[in-house]
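Changelog note: in this version the structure field was regenerated for every chain. One regenerated record is shown below for reference.
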Amino acid sequence: MPRHLIETTDFSKQEIQKILDLAEQFLDGKMRNTLKDHIIITIFFENSTRTLSSFEVATKRLGGSVVRLDVSRSSTSKGETLFDTAANLNAMSPSAIVVRHKSSGVPNILSRYVSCSIVNGGDGAHAHPTQALLDLLTLKKHLGNLEEKKIAIVGDIKSSRVANSNIELLSRFGMEVILIGPPHFIPKNQLRHHLYLKEVIDEVDAVMSLRTQTERHNLPVYSSLKDYANDYCITREMLGERDIILLHPGPVHRNIDISDEMLKDPRCKVLEQVTHGVAIRMAVLETLITQSDTPKVQNFPYF
């Protein structure tokens, strides 16, 4: 049966460590042929730069082929259901389908109707597992053992699939996750939370800034992004000379999430995260596909 990556809990801690070790090897940038004769389909119903491109680069570096479905030109624009789209793509015998969708749960539902691996490239405000894996790799490279280390996640946490996946994964690896933001940006959970980063800046080892996801808000929650930036933009003045690494999943709203000055600071690892993203997605694809006993052709009911 094919294996899927829908959320971070789909892999055990031991399996995740193997993925991290494999990704470390892939950081050499060399071409492989592990996925020769394998086809990966990417279907993104939401815009993406880093995730979409890195999955495609990852596939090609492993010797596989990529087919990108242009949603705007696909039959979904003619009224074809998502499930019929999945059934038709599955009939072409890909080894994996990478999907992003604005609605939470779509990758999980699709995984029940295909005979190949489904990889979640982000679904609504639910999960973004490969982003959390690349963040974990970045943190471990700079902090080593994450047990008892602390990370502050700052911003629109309630709307963030990245935050959800990181909270689960980083907690499992021993980090204390502290949430920072105004009350309407904080989800209901048992994690420690504060209104401002300055309240915990002297005790954290890392800071993850998040984009304010206005597209997921039914009503404006801040009078302006400038007002938000006055309280939550990560600046050099805020971090001072502290030995703290700074992460952001992108896209970064300059001078709203992170100041221009901090984006140039060596403690900012945003571009390193992108590099790690290719290696992690190589490791995920290789793990899912080579460990799955997936039949090349399998007919599923037309639903």
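Spot check on this record: The two ends are 21 Å apart (CA to CA). The longest helix spans residues 270-291.
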